[in-house]
Amino acid sequence: MLDAARSYTLRLDLSGGPAQPRVVVVATTTLTNARGRTFAASSLDPESIALTARRTLVISSEGDARRGYEAFAREFDLQGAQVGTFHVPEHYRPAADHSSGIRTNLALESGGITEDGATYFTGTENAPVQDGRSAGATTGSPARLLRYRMQDRRLLGEYVYEVEAAKQPRTAGGSAGNGLADLLPLSDTRLLALERGFSSGAGNPPRLYAVDLAPATDVRGRADLPTDLAGVTPAGKTLVLDLATLGITPDNLEGLTSGPQLAGGRRSLVLVSDDNFSATQQTQLLVFAV
């Protein structure tokens, strides 16, 4: 049986350079809801976590369309108590007949805050049901990004982010999928995005993209989008790094953040994997000098 929903405080020591990171678990904090109670089993699926300028945490949960509970982004103090919530529009709520709303395991996977602390971004891993297909071996998926003002948690914009298609599986009848795993906001219009997925027998090494919202259409308030995105300009994106070129075997990388400054003045970029509580996976930390 798994413990209650919780967050971990880590200390990342890069004094030996990005090639020799040392990670220490400093604390474990149980999360509690607005009534001060621990979250019930199977009532949330926490994915992203971001530290705010006011020393609180914003945590997103994917929700679960099969069980009928919605995705959320909520703010918690450093003792784990919920102190606020970000309004997620009604069109993300899973419909009872599954004709609209989030897809199970493909909802609010990502989340990050601009360095000035003013803006919070989150996004769906794949498109809500009414917006189009989920990503597979032959097609991508029009996910949505949400932009909030941290001061009052007000939704300021929604944008389409086109997730790439997955690799073709190498096993007959094998599965293939890809999704937006995390976001690192650089400004109100520029972000880094981490995509990762899995294709049977082929893997699916993660990729980092530079994202530009300046040309993107704000689709806030639109419950559904045309399948051909007629009249909608998605966010611009440019490939920054394909981890397949690094000669390593990445695990299920889902976290992305900026790290401490390195000797010589460069910044570090940190990626972390989700082991899914599986004996065949591991928690993996990758640190890059930028």
> How many domain units?
1
**Biggest β-sheet strands, sense, barrel:** 4 strands, antiparallel
| End-to-end CA span | 40 Å
SS field, number of helical segments: 0
Helix content: under 10%
Number-wise, the strands total 17
**Overall mean pLDDT:** 93
Shape: globular
Share of residues in strands: 35-45%
Q: What pattern of helices and strands is seen along the backbone?
A: EEEEEEEEEEEEEEEEE
- Spatial strand order of the main sheet: 3-4-5-6
Task: Report Rg.
Answer: 18 Å
Low-confidence stretches: none
Structural class, judged by helices and strands?
A: mainly beta
What does the model show?
- The structure is a single chain.
- The chain is 0% helix and 42% strand.
- The chain is mainly beta and 290 residues long.
- The strands form 5 sheets. Strands 3-4-5-6 form a 4-stranded antiparallel β-sheet, with no helix packed on it. Strands 7-8-9-10 form a 4-stranded antiparallel β-sheet, with no helix packed on it.
- It is globular and about 50 Å long.
